[in-house]
Amino acid sequence: MSTYIAPIRDMQFVLNEVAGLEEICALPGNEECSVDLVESILDEASKFATGVLDPINSVGDRVGHVCKDGVVTTAPGFKEAYKLFAETGWNSMPFSPEFGGQGLPAVVSMAVNEMWKAANMAFGLCPMLTGGAIEAIAHHASDELKQKYLPKMIEGTWTGTMNLTEPNAGSDLAAISSKAKAVGDGTFLVSGTKIFITWGEHDVAENIIHLVLARLPDAPPGLKGISLFLVPKFLVNDDGSLGKRNDLICASIEHKLGIHGSPTAVMSYGENEGAVGYLIGDENKGIGYMFTMMNHARVNVGLEGVGIAERAYQHALWYARERVQGKIIGDTSGEKKTILHHPDVRRLLMDCKSRTEAMRTLAYYTAANIDRAHAGNAAAQVRVDLLTPVVKGWSTEQGVELSSAALQVFGGVGFVEETGAAQYYRDSRITTIYEGTTAIQANDLVGRKLAREKVPGAAMQALIAEMTADAEVFAANAQLAGMAAHLKNGINSLSTAANWIVANYESAPAAVHAGSVPFLKLTGIVVGGWLMAKSAAIAVRHIAAGTTDDFYKAKLATANYFAAHQLPFAAAYSAEMTGGAESVFALPESLF
Fold first, then answer.
1. Residue 266 placed within a domain
2. How confident is the model over 317-344, as a mean pLDDT?
3. Within a domain: residue 211?
């Protein structure tokens, strides 16, 4: 069985040479960060991922967790791993030093978080949800709530959750029916049932801080009448110590296709008098506040696509180097060779490697723009808003495809659980669903981020203009000219589809949304291709300067592969976007 090894060399390349880490470290508030410090952080994180999280990944999958009388016991090793995780400071990396955080840039956390997700995705969900809750509290809660809850959450002593979904309200948050009523002392009593609550109950931390969407009695209907409440598992005394158990319970845990090490809870609030909660921000503004948490989670779920693809690729590569099977097509030596020499196995592995590198570069590039936006760069925030649904939607779809491709390398034994290949495939499948399905991400992209933008299509056109200018530069280099030609074709396909969306959205919104997922995939492929071409241009410069580092030769090879094998799909997705709507609606409902 292979062991996960963090791809630190590629991570450093993307951070330093594509995302601009040195520039990010020079931004206001990041003065304590340096390239050397980040290198040390990545080395230590790699050791933790390989030595602590990877060994309990399969245990979490096989054993899972147990719920008895509302008490959840996590899989063997998870509690000890989380204790060490918190004690060594990994939970506090990106958060404000005011509340005990380390204040490191988002792009640094992005690289480290990839390791957690690759080594043990089920474990990584716990700090991910806690991080989202911290962001929501930090941005929108009162100073009193911040002082009371953030230090313990940032240090990892307490964890956090988001509670949106209800049995009658899946992605339709307007249908939420959970209630909250004011007591008169500044607190509220919350009642209702929430489902699909990731790490909603567990034994790894002292307290769990739930962020719960609910309605006040006089709230207007729909999304405009939803408020956000902080509801702790244990009430917290004024001195910070834990008080009595709140009126909430884990009614059950879900039995899932994958991520068995992550307890997904059905949470019941107010079985008796009501769970004590504290209003975050203003009444009826909860949806906007929760989106702070959701946008944090969406980028991080996109990173799960990167991590699971990387882990599945490493496992498949290990097997391909070990397994001797069959005659190699075109080989006349008569020697027995491993399946790594079979042409289609090479194709599968190149697919995994090149597409994972493209996803990683997109995720880190977006995180770097989050850092620039935090420093006041308005254009960077526009770019983050545009790319967030792409990072989430495209990367998770890629993760499912690539974990499947990696399993294919194993052949029949990949379908057998003992090899471990099936776990990555099963674990990946949820990523395209939670934190907003791929369709929801695509609807956000074509609707809010494109057609209903203040100047429709402006953000996309700015990105297209930047990619086009780079493509012209690449075309002038003989080593990049072929790649540039593929990139130009992809950019033209993206531009055609984007213009069609803007031109047709008002008159035919259903037709636009019928092709929104293909458009999201089109955007991911073209932006990923652009970033891979930028990576290739950097590699060419190093090679021309006489480097002996084979890494750059490998980067040039994977970038060329992505251009030749992925960018041609752009034309097909563009055609599907602009000319496929009529056939979507052609079949009467009675004939389905």
1. no
2. 93
3. no
